[in-house]
Design goal:
10-stranded mixed sheet; alpha/beta; 5-stranded mixed sheet; elongated; Rossmann fold; 20% strand
């Protein structure tokens, strides 16, 4: 059974329970009553209670000299060793390392002594423990309520142990502490926060939090899942649940409240997250972004290769357009050698073609590159060009793929990513028994293109490759065929009303292959996938300059060397960015 099917069943059970006697809803709305005076509450449904009664895992007590974060981290390790890692991966369950937890808690600005903290997707409570250690380090007495959501029943006894330890240790120092554990689905249980009507606000008296700290689950949701239906106005395509955790948390904090999340970077660009980015920047003032140079070290316990960021934001009644954003970087999760610098919001939030993107420069030279490229006046659309994705999806067209090109007009060459060599196209080129050609028939005609001048761009790069962008020119004069098939992992730039000239094609390919544009693109896109949406938003120089660049590159045949391309482009455009200071990108271990 898939995780979406599990949630479908859970949602139906919750709806049935609410409609009959409203019991589950009333139990978890007990979070709205302060429990600071009477201690912690565990809020479970019956299915979770049954699982807990059958649990045979022995939970160790906290050692006398053991820190709260160390204890929570030790329990995370115990849980990870006890339960199937595949099952945890299906739940999107990756525990926050203790050093990262402490850093996340350090980002909050704590200026008042009555605090309510929310930890959705709490796991063993390591993030809440880090927040509590932060309170202890301040040495000021506070009235603290901790609300933790965790719907993995096997984690709840561990979470309760940690929160009880937090309560006892803080109360020994004179603090007043209560905690609540809710075993319900975080999104479904709080769906009222997404209602536009103020009826919910009047009738339910919802909680507003001072702080939210979270490492949410990461997995893709079906667009018809109950969580997707609740948040439909933020959904496009197939969403990832971490995005919904962020959106809901933004609705649950008070004015002036703060959120700190560690998530994948994928929401910063891409069409699937467009509505969410608009929502987030409308409701949250982003103040801090931390990026890790290593993609594999953060969740090494779970062997996760994922570019993650830590993001901090503040709920503001009115956004401050002059707010500076603090960018920080670290080599790994130890966070012992931080590099910080401030940038303006204009350098981070990039509005283009009716979309907004969140860019993350990792050095001041990156900021310089952003400003130079942002000054270029055009996009592909302005130049009368378009970028499209190769229409041949192999598993759908498998009946029409051919191992060889037939010597008649009944077949056409098929181009894959491996046919892009340097800035040219090499065909035929065999690799892994991939088809060399595609059958030409009435059914395949919609998949085929007339051979013209195109710029082909790889949609994916491997972790070993130094660049994210690889562009090549398909010249009609060098490709003696009428039609061509382009596989789905290749994007192609074309002129819908006409054809690219040779110099236009080489000029565009040369610009895309520069290290300047590669660095620019890395600030925009944190993964190895090159989305057509990102290329559409990319600035380009004036067409006369593109043609000049293309002419020089084509005639000099120097386009195999990216440094030469940088020099040519810089000379034509008059840019003065020092290329020796630009990086090959953050994720050096890719």
């Amino acid at each position: 059974m898939s995780i979406n099917e599990v949630y479908q069943m859970q949602y139906k059970k919750e709806e049935l329970t609410r409609s009959s006697h409203n019991m589950n809803w009333e139990i978890c709305t007990a979070l709205q009553t302060h429990q600071s005076k009477i201690g912690g509450k565990r809020l479970l449904n019956r299915e979770m209670t049954d699982v807990l009664e059958d649990s045979s895992m022995q939970i160790p007590e906290k050692a006398k000299q053991e820190g709260l974060v160390d204890y929570a981290d030790r329990l995370s390790g115990l849980y990870a060793r006890t339960y199937d890692p595949l099952n945890r991966k299906q739940k999107g369950q990756f525990f926050t390392p203790k050093q990262v937890s402490v850093y996340m808690a350090s980002l909050f600005e704590i200026h008042h002594n009555k605090i309510r903290l929310l930890d959705p997707g709490a796991g063993t409570g390591v993030l809440t423990a880090a927040f509590c250690e932060r309170i202890l380090s301040k040495g000021e007495v506070v009235d603290l309520t901790l609300d933790a959501y965790e719907n993995d029943a096997n984690l709840l006894p561990l979470l309760e142990k940690v929160l009880e330890s937090c309560k006892l240790e803080l109360e020994e120092k004179g603090n007043n502490v209560g905690y609540n554990i809710c075993g319900q689905d975080f999104i479904l249980h709080n769906e009222g926060y997404f209602r536009e009507s103020d009826l919910f606000l009047r009738s339910e008296n919802p909680i507003s939090y001072d702080f939210v700290i979270s490492n949410p689950p990461y997995y893709k949701l079906n667009k018809d899942s109950p969580q997707s239906r609740v948040t439909m106005k933020l959904i496009y395509g197939q969403p990832n649940i971490y995005m919904l955790f962020m959106a809901l948390s933004a609705n649950m904090i008070r004015s002036g409240g703060e959120i700190v999340f560690i998530t994948p970077r994928s929401f910063c660009s891409g069409l699937y997250y467009k509505k969410f980015r608009e929502f987030l920047l409308k409701n949250i003032q982003i103040t801090d972004i931390h990026i890790f140079e290593s993609r594999k070290d953060i969740f090494s316990r779970d062997e996760i290769l994922q570019e993650n960021i830590i993001i901090k934001g503040r709920k503001e009644g009115k956004m401050n357009e002059n707010e500076k954003v603090i960018i920080s970087t670290s080599k790994n999760r130890n966070l012992n050698k931080l590099k910080n610098f401030e940038v303006s919001e204009n350098d981070i939030f990039y509005y283009k073609n009716g979309d907004v993107f969140i860019r993350i420069p990792t050095s001041l030279s990156d900021v310089e590159i952003l400003r130079i490229v942002d000054s270029w006046p055009n996009t592909l659309k302005d130049l009368g060009l378009e970028i499209s994705t190769g229409p041949v999806v192999p598993f759908r067209a498998k009946d029409y793929l051919l191992p060889e090109l037939k010597e008649n007009s009944k077949s056409a060459p098929l181009l894959w990513m491996h046919n892009i060599q340097g800035t040219g196209i090499v065909w035929p080129l065999r690799k892994n028994k991939k088809a060399l050609a595609i059958h030409v028939s009435g059914k395949t005609m919609p998949l085929l293109l007339h051979v013209k001048n195109y710029v082909l761009v790889k949609r994916f790069t491997s972790k070993e490759q130094k660049r994210r962008l690889y562009a090549a020119v398909l010249l009609k004069s060098d490709f003696p065929y009428k039609r061509v098939g382009i596989e789905n992992h290749v994007n192609y730039i074309h002129k819908p009303k006409g054809a690219l000239s040779v110099y236009e094609a080489f000029g565009i390919a040369a610009i895309l292959n520069t290290t300047v544009i590669d660095n620019y693109f890395r600030t925009l896109n944190g993964n190895t996938q090159v989305n057509s949406t990102d290329i559409r938003s990319l600035p380009f120089p004036q067409i006369k300059d593109i043609i000049k660049i293309g002419e020089i590159v084509y005639k000099s045949q120097s386009y195999e060397n990216s440094l030469n391309l940088d020099i040519i482009v810089a000379e034509i455009l008059g840019t003065n960015v020092k290329m020796e200071k630009t990086k090959k990108g953050v994720a050096k271990d890719e």
